[in-house]
Amino acid sequence: MTQYDPDTRKKKQDESKSKRDQEIDDLRQVLATASGRGYILRLLERCGTFNLSYCNNASETAFKEGRRSMGLSIYRDIADASHDGVRNIIGDFYERRTGNNRNG
Known about the structure:
The chain is mainly α. The protein has one domain. It contains 4 helices and no strands. The chain has helices at 6-31, 34-46, 58-81, 83-98. The longest helix is centred in the N-terminal third of the chain and has 26 residues, at 6-31. The chain is flat, with a radius of gyration of 18 Å.
């Protein structure tokens, strides 16, 4: 049995938090540019994030749901990085789907 060391556990938690903070900072940089938001939006669309996964074939539904799960994970990262990022991604998605400019 290994001995419990609270200092080691705290250090690992701090390292994990630091990595997560860096990921979120990196994503903020990507979301700060129109081309970065476009790339993220294309990823979300390829993942089927905004679509239903169900179809008549259970295996295909499971595959689509796994892909969609990855898209939702990216979407949660966007929400963690910036509420404006979510608003911009949804607005870009709306424009792409409808062809309407959300600004008038």
